[in-house]
Structures are given as structure tokens and as C-alpha cells.
Design a protein that fits this description.
The chain is built from two helices and five strands; from the N terminus they run E-E-H-E-E-E-H. Helix content is 35%, strand content 23%.
């Protein structure tokens, strides 16, 4: 299950209620809250050691997801080209 954060960093804009909290962090916190609420409501158990809440890039099955978008891992591309 993936929880996508905001599509922008809003040029480091802060929220009006607190100048120490960036807008994109506040929006992502709401996304994570909704995710956990849905997990709890459905009765699903999530592993704390396997969950990744924030990372600049994530490698999942040969695809790298980052702020720049989704890219195939170079090793996977080479295997396909040599096949």
C-alpha cells in the first residue's frame, strides 16, 4: 500500500498556523494519518519494521520511486536489453 505525499514542496512554504512546519510536511502528515486510520478501521496489521514513511527514493522490485518520478533500476534495464 502506498501513500503518496504532496506533488510539490511549495517552495518551502510554511503553514499559517505555525511558521516552523512546512506545508508539504503538514499535508503528508495528513496522508499518513488517513492511511493509518484506514488500516485500523479495516483491521489490517502492519509491520513497523517493514514500513517506510519518508525516504528520498525507494527501490521496489527493480523500480526506483523518487521525487523526480519512477525509473527502472539500471541493472534491470541491462538484463532486459541483453535478453
Amino acid at each position: 500500500m502506498a501513500a503518496h505525499g504532496p506533488s510539490s514542496r511549495y517552495n518551502e512554504e510554511t503553514i499559517p498556523e505555525n511558521d516552523d512546519i512546512r506545508r508539504f510536511v503538514w499535508e503528508y502528515a495528513h496522508v499518513v494519518y488517513e492511511l493509518f486510520s484506514r488500516l485500523e478501521h479495516s483491521g489490517i496489521t502492519a509491520s513497523g519494521t517493514k514500513i517506510v514513511l519518508a525516504t528520498p527514493a525507494l527501490d521496489v522490485l527493480g523500480a526506483i520511486a523518487s521525487e523526480e518520478g519512477l525509473q527502472l533500476h539500471h541493472g534491470l534495464v541491462n538484463k532486459v536489453l541483453k535478453w
